Amino acid sequence: MRHNWRQLPGVVRLGDELGAWVSVIPVYNDEHSLYKLDRDALAEVVAELDRHAPVLEAELALNRPVWDAELAQIRAAATSEPGAESAPMIEPKHHDNAAELVARRRAAGPVALPPDAAPSGPVVVAGPAPRWWRRRRAASTVEPAAAPPAPSAPPAPSVTDLDAELARWAVGGSLVRVDTDADDVVTAVAVSVGTPPRIDPDGWVGRSFDDVAEQLRQAWGASVWLVEDDRTRAGLVDQLVAFSPSAHREKNGAIVRVVSAARPGGGWTTHLAIDPSFLPAEGLAVS
What we know:
Blueprint: H1 8-18, H2 39-59, H3 64-78, E1 89-92, H4 99-104, E2 122-125, H5 132-135, H6 159-169, E3 174-180, E4 186-193, H7 209-220, E5 223-230, E6 236-244, E7 254-262, E8 268-275
Antiparallel strand pairs: 1-2, 3-4, 3-8, 5-6, 6-7, 7-8
Helix pairs in contact: 2-3
């Protein structure tokens, strides 16, 4: 925003001091957005942030990708040609499109990456929607009874408890439970809360979850972001996915919590908790 961009260097530095990843959410369409400034004004912003760059690049560790991504985003906007389409959104290599996440989709616990695989810079988020739905299959192996989860990992809730938890999260929304087989083809669907907006879960049986994810994209927004990917509870992959019809992440689509667990004998049970708060009543212009 125009009133707080000067705080960015201090915020990422504080994040490093606390050992906390800083999540920066740019605002694009609001009249107070930094990106509503003209190119000359944005160039002044870049020049001011560049003053901090040498020190921050030497000091930052955890939040270096955040700093690099934000500076690259503002620089791209400042140097874009007049009349050109908006510069692509640039996000740090952390959750989506990150080497860490690609490795973690195969295991529910933390994965140590070799030094040469560590994310080192920003990534342009553009083109097809990221395949978040395949990453939900991290708990691909059900642990035998003799191998309990690590003591530090809270146990996974029962299906009933998880339904109740997600229903409380999606107040006024809806909840869909989807069972898939070992090939990730839908075998059963149950809508336990509300009426899912603009999708047809009854037609999912026999279709791959790839097809389901595409239907969600067409219904709620062609641009998709994996906002969070939480694996702190044993056997669960808890994802927060944002859908938007615009090229930037805006509050004009659907927010969906996708919680998945491996099923005994193969396959997955996936809960979709749908928050429709930001879905415009007049519908979406999906591009």
